[in-house]
Amino acid sequence: MFTLDDLLKATEGKLLSKGVEIFKEASIDTRTIGEKDIFFALKGSKRDGHEFVNEALIKASGAVISKVQGIYSKNKTVVLVDHTLDSLKKLAKYLREKFKGKTLAVIGSNGKTTTKELIANFLQQRYKTLKTEGNLNNNIGVPLSLSRIEANTEIMVLELGTNRHGDIRELCNIVYPDYALITNIGYEHIEGFGSIEGVREGELEILPYVKGVFVNGDDKFLMEGLKGYRGKIFTFGLSKDCNFRAENIKFLNDHVEFDFHSELVTFPVKSNLTGLYNIYNLTGAIAVALFFDICKCCIQRVTESFTPVKMRGEIIRINGVEIFFDAYNANPSSMRVALEELVRRKKDRVAIAVLGDMLELGDLTDSAHEKIGQWIKELGIDMFIGVGKFIRNALRYVNGHFFDDAQEAADFLKRKLMGREVVLIKGSRAMKLEKILEILKEGRQ
């Protein structure tokens, strides 16, 4: 919550009309805005938020605008600023400066959202915790999250995303994190970074801001980038060299079990999350939980009840078919581990990979999709269905069935399924592969 005084001090805006003086949070979406919220009229690539100011003022307590359009109701708060997005960032930074608790940032190429959710669930067992909702990890979503700081908030867990150099630095100049967790470095957003070295450089823009980092100790490329960092380094992973590690891993039908080990404590962990990559997410999150004095019993309770984040490693069963649904995003690193998980889950069933284009790979686009064909052949996957234009590059190494959109792929897959298959559905978000799942669910018994 923040006050009108906070808003005016942070933005140096001009008060056009005065109504409510305390706001629950900032919002940019009239579809979900609450009556105690204040609307920021941001100009987007397709629509200008000023088109929705009148609608916002009917539903909410006020609006922040950069251009005046008509006369506004006297019982609603309206503030005029030079630039609404800059003002949202200034408000967030002002509220962060007033915040006296701890802030942890979660960054990396893969696994950020799941790890952030795990950490927040752990910390909520003891602290009043604020987290970024969903995937609101950019220069709009993070400030919106900070607007929800309450007087009794003790810890913030904020996912920070990046597409290009400078993104993490910009967010850190708003958030000023105390600590960071870095999941890994992989081939993400190569179009913006130019190379994997560029990805690492972009992610590690966070180092000057934090006094300690939790890092994937098995990611040697990431660890090389930490040379010269003078803060505390806490490593997590599977190798004996890691400060926090998973040992004796057992993948069972519907869950995974392992022993979590550190110098001070060892205890068993059971989780519904699937895949080796989630062992890293779990281990890193548990390391953070222990650092903040969350008890072993609380950690075990949370890990056992935690379910996969929507569209990220969900296991869905439809008429005897097991769907491994991981279609929120895709890059070569996450695609490889997903295919490996498909093979691990195969057992005596038919393994089908339904894969969409991986986007934002720049000059690596063709070769990265060719590599998928190599992996499918190498791993012995029984059927390959591609969606999009870039995925057709996999034809160089493996045969498959290719479609322009998810609807066509779903119709084909539905005809082929016999009820004894395990199916991976994965691709970049823009490919809308959730449509395949919707079609498979139609007529579900």
CATH class designation of the largest domain: Alpha Beta
Q: Tell me the Rg in angstroms.
A: 23 Å
Oligomer: single chain
Give unreliable regions as ranges: none
Q: Tell me, what's the shape?
A: globular
Q: What is the topology, as strand order, of the major beta sheet?
A: 9-10-8-11-12-13-14-15-16
Would you tell me the structural class of the helices and strands? alpha/beta
What is the strand and helix layout of this fold?
Blueprint: E1 2-3, H1 4-11, E2 14-17, E3 22-23, E4 26-27, E5 38-40, H2 53-59, E6 62-65, E7 77-80, H3 84-98, E8 102-107, H4 112-123, E9 129-131, H5 141-146, E10 155-159, H6 167-175, E11 179-182, H7 190-193, H8 196-203, E12 212-216, H9 220-224, E13 232-237, E14 244-251, E15 256-261, E16 266-271, H10 276-291, H11 296-305, E17 314-318, E18 321-325, H12 332-346, E19 350-356, H13 365-379, E20 383-387, E21 401-403, H14 406-416, E22 421-426, H15 434-441
Parallel strand pairs: 4-5, 5-6, 6-7, 8-10, 8-11, 9-10, 11-12, 12-13, 13-14, 18-22, 19-20, 19-22, 20-21
Antiparallel strand pairs: 1-3, 2-7, 14-15, 15-16, 17-18
Helix pairs in contact: 1-3, 4-10, 12-13, 14-15
Explain this structure.
By secondary structure, the chain is α/β, with parallel strands linked by helices. It folds into three domains: about 1-85, Udp-n-acetylmuramoylalanyl-d-glutamate--2,6- Diaminopimelate Ligase, Chain: A, domain 1 (3-Layer(aba) Sandwich), CATH 3.40.1390; about 100-305, UDP-N-acetylmuramoyl-L-alanine:D-glutamate ligase (3-Layer(aba) Sandwich), CATH 3.40.1190.10; about 315-440, Protein-Tyrosine Phosphatase, Chain A. Helices cover about 35% and strands about 25% of the residues. The protein has 15 helices and 22 strands. It has helices at about 5-10, 55-60, 85-100, 110-125, 140-145, 165-175, 190-195, 195-205, 220-225, 275-290, 295-305, 330-345, 365-380, 405-415, 435-440; strands at about 1-5, 15, 20-25, 25, 40, 60-65, 75-80, 100-105, 130, 155-160, 180, 210-215, 230-235, 245-250, 255-260, 265-270, 315-320, 320-325, 350-355, 385, 400-405, 420-425. The strands form four sheets. The chain has a nine-stranded mixed sheet. β12 (about 210-215), α9 and β13 form a beta-alpha-beta unit. α4 (about 110-125) packs parallel to α10. The mean pLDDT is about 95.
